[in-house]
Amino acid sequence: MMFAAAMAVAVAIDVALGWAAAIYARIGHPVTWIGWFIRSLDFRLNRESYSPSQRRVMGVVSVIAVVGLPTTCAAVIQALLPGGWAGALLTGILAWPLVAVRSMHEHVVAVAQPLVRGDVPAARHAVSMIVGRDPSVLDEAGVARAALESLAENTSDGIVAPLFWGVLLGLPGIVAYKAINTLDSMIGHRTPRHEAFGWASARLDDVANFIPARLTGLAFALSSKHPLEGMRTMLRDARKHRSPNAGWPEAALAAGLGVRLSGPRIYGDRIVEEPWLNAGASDPCAADINAGIVLYRRVVLLAGILLIALAAL
Length: 313
Prior knowledge:
Layout: H1 2-17, H2 21-27, H3 30-45, H4 52-80, H5 84-95, H6 101-116, H7 120-127, H8 140-187, H9 199-223, H10 227-237, H11 247-257, E1 261-262, E2 265-267, E3 270-272, E4 276-277, H12 286-312
Antiparallel strand pairs: 1-4, 2-3
């Protein structure tokens, strides 16, 4: 299982180094490169003069281009790499930027630290870096909820899913997944501009995350102090979430911490009524974010152990 070994290398490098700000300042990041391509296509192909059906077709064309081009390049590179441990090492180095273990940890810690001190405005600013809702209306519980929901969902999107597709398909798999996920995050929204154009991106992202989201929920449940309760809550509440995938890790994390997540939230000038996950529990606080970070570390450790075990096979 050379690809499992490669993903273990990618995780190890990212945990140790992350993606340094100096590197980002010089060359950006592979996801920002993909983002530039998506913005370019959005500007050129998503025209207001087009009908919804034309926009949907152009969205499909964009998906094919954004996923196909970098994945083809990755497949060519993978074919040129040597086999064995040398190939695993090189594949892992190339896959490293596409695994977001350290950055996710740093972003959530940046929310927890000011919230623990009682500095809600600073915590709001930090949480605005990782969520789409308006942070100015969030109290302590709202900030904690937003941070934990982002932690749960991004553990799936930023870590488990890339590793899953990397283990299955190597460098082309992890590159294809990151392209799909970036498409969804940028244009997969139900807004007047992207309802039709981003339709294919959103549906493809749902498919790509179907198994990883459930594996992430299982990992959170197994890593908690009450794994059976975590699995029961996940199976009961996950389908209440508006997303077909995000509810699985969020429900498992909520049960693992003994808090409730999701629920009503504000996007722009709209109040979105969402059902609670683990509804009978209390709202989270700053201490629960730190507890969530500990659980996150356990999930990453579990993922690393599984990768090493697969590589040993």
